[in-house]
Design brief:
The protein is mainly alpha-helical. The protein folds into three domains: 35 residues, no CATH class; 76 residues, Winged helix-like DNA-binding domain superfamily/Winged helix DNA-binding domain (Arc Repressor Mutant, subunit A); 45 residues. The protein is built from seven helices and three strands, in the order H-H-E-H-H-E-E-H-H-H. A three-stranded antiparallel β-sheet has the order 1-3-2. Strand 2 and strand 3 form a beta hairpin. The protein is globular and about 50 Å long.
């Protein structure tokens, strides 16, 4: 049963991607270069939902020290805001600044203008239904992402015990 649903997503996603894909700008309003790695970091942050440097580093598969250098550059450029956690002064929360939000939007995979043109072709009820469906898929994608993040930690915790049984 699920194979037909998977096929439908695999067929539909590329059509949306190709119709609405944009060229990546990789520069800010002043023409300053933004590297692909910097744009990727910005893409993983939000203006209202803070994250920590360690969570960001873990998610992107780099060490905290490497991420710290990259984040420091983005803070100096005015794209990321750092705030000390009120409950734990050692923890620093990262959020996008308005300039960081603009860079993130400018480097989005999908072009908002092309999306608007596609939406204009759709009947209002169909558009609303499609958006609700995408929002639902995104909700469960986030749940799956959290589960996948926990799985490697659980596997690492089990490995030493498994080795003892094998030996």
């Amino acid at each position: 049963m699920l194979d037909s649903e998977v096929r439908r997503i695999l067929d539909a996603y590329p059509a949306i991607f190709l119709a609405c894909h944009r060229r990546h700008l990789r520069a800010d309003d002043a023409g300053n270069a933004v590297t692909e790695r910097q744009a990727s970091v910005l893409d993983h942050l939000d203006a209202t939902r803070p994250t920590t440097l360690s969570k960001l580093a873990e998610h992107m598969g780099v060490g905290s020290s490497s991420m710290s250098i990259l984040v420091a550059r983005l803070v100096r450029a005015g794209y990321i805001a750092q705030r000390r956690d009120s409950s734990d002064a050692r923890r620093v929360s990262l959020t996008l600044t308005p300039a960081g939000t603009r860079i993130k939007a400018d480097n989005s995979v999908l072009d908002p203008q092309l999306l608007r043109k596609m939406f204009a072709l759709m009947p209002a009820a169909e558009l609303e239904s499609a958006l609700r469906g995408l929002e639902s898929l995104a909700k469960y994608a986030r749940i799956q992402q959290r589960q996948r993040k926990r799985a490697p930690q659980q596997e690492r915790a089990l490995r030493p015990k498994e080795r003892r049984h094998v030996a």
